[in-house]
Amino acid sequence: MTVREWPLQEEDINEDVCKKCAICCEIELKPNWKNPRQFEWLGAIVDGHDNITNTRKGIRIRCSHLRQTKYATGPYWECGIYEDRPRLCRDFNCVSWAKYSDDLAQYNRVLKRMGIIDHDFSTELRGPDI
Predict the structure, then answer these.
(1) pTM: predicted TM-score of the whole model, two decimal places
(2) Cα–Cα distance between 57 and 27 in angstroms, integer?
(3) Order of strands across the sheet with 26-29?
(4) Per-residue pLDDT reduced to its tens digit, 81-118
(5) Contact assessment for residue 1 and residue 127, using Cβ atoms and an 8 Å cutoff
(6) How high is the mean pLDDT of the chain?
(7) Are the CB atoms for 59 and 33 separated by under 8 Å?
(8) Beta strand 74-79 with 66-71: parallel, antiparallel or unpaired?
(9) How far is CA 84 from the centre of its chain?
(10) Sequence spans of domains, the chain
């Protein structure tokens, strides 16, 4: 039996990691529209909003409390109200979410952002977590 070894554990998610990462504070919505005019319409609606950007296949919405910072490896977003963030944000743990949902996309983004790995954490490894 193959055992998945998680490079980042729940207890590794602390204030420093969260404040430097902020990936969970944004969402990308990708409607499955076929008509390109619908994307033009969406782009026109979100144009000019600081926390909403048009992507190739939809829109990205960032929390209004994020502020852009610059770390050694490039620009990132950081929580501007970390000490006073809502309960929903306090309770969220990206490692727990990845393990529970078995969706590694967000987990891989965190690993890359933190410089732990530069490739996707393998989805081919299936088995109990350790």
Answers:
(1) 0.67
(2) 13
(3) 26-29, 59-62, 52-54
(4) 989 999 999 998 888 888 787 778 878 888 887 788 77
(5) yes
(6) 80
(7) no
(8) antiparallel
(9) 20
(10) 1-22+79-123
